[in-house]
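Example record

The entry below shows one chain as it appears in the dataset: sequence first, then C-alpha cells.
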Amino acid sequence: MHFQEITQFERNLYNNGIKYIAGIDEVGRGPLAGPFVVSAVILDLDKIFSEELEQLINDVQSAEKQEEILLYTKINDSKLLSPKKRDVLAEFIKKEALSYSIELFSPEKVDELGISEITQLSFYNAIKNLKIKPEFVLTDTFEVKKLTKEHQTNIVRGDTKSISIAAASIVAKVYRDNIMVEMHKKYPVYGFDKHKGYGTEYHIRALYEYGPCEIHRKSFHPVKDLLH
C-alpha cells in the first residue's frame, strides 16, 4: 500500500497530463554546524506508472528478477531509511531521474542571510538549475514565494507522502551527510560523523570544551553565546 500512497500526488497530476513534477526538500535547517542543502528531483513518471512496474509490484517472482526497477518502491522519507539504504537509493535516484539539482549554502551564508531567506533562495535556485523546466512543484510544507500558488503544492510531512519529495530528501541528506563525515576528519573532537552537526548532548559538550570551529553557525545558540 505504501507505493500507492506515496505516489498519490504525482498520480493525480500525471493523470491530468502533467509529467514534469519537481519534488524539493532540504536538509540542515536546524544543525549548529555545517551547510544547508536543498535538492530538487524530477522523476520519470512514465516509468513509475508503467504497467511493467505495476506488474512487478504485484508479482513477487518477477520482482526478484528485476530488483533494480523495484527500488522505486523503496523510496521514502530519508529519516526512515538506514544509511546504507539511503546511499543505494541516492545513486539510483540520480541515475534514473530525468533531472536533479543540489544547492548548498555555507554556514557563513546561513549566518549572513538567515535561515528563512536561505530557504527561499535555495528552493528557487534548485528549481531554476534543473535541466528540465518543471510543470509543477511539490514541496515539504514550504511555499516558494517566487512561484505562483497554482504551480506548487506544499504538503505537510511531504517526504512521507510524495515520492518526488522523498527522492529529493534522500539525495540532499546523503550529500550533506557525506560532507559532515569529511568535516569530521578535519575537526574530529566534535563528532560530526555521528550527529552531522545537530545539537546532541555530545556535540554541545564538545562545543563548551573546545569552542566553535569555522563550520559552526555563529548566529545559532549556543554557538552565539560562546563567541561573546
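Notes for this example: The domain at 2-183 is CATH 3.30.420.10 (Nucleotidyltransferase; domain 5). The first strand starts at residue 21 and ends at 27.
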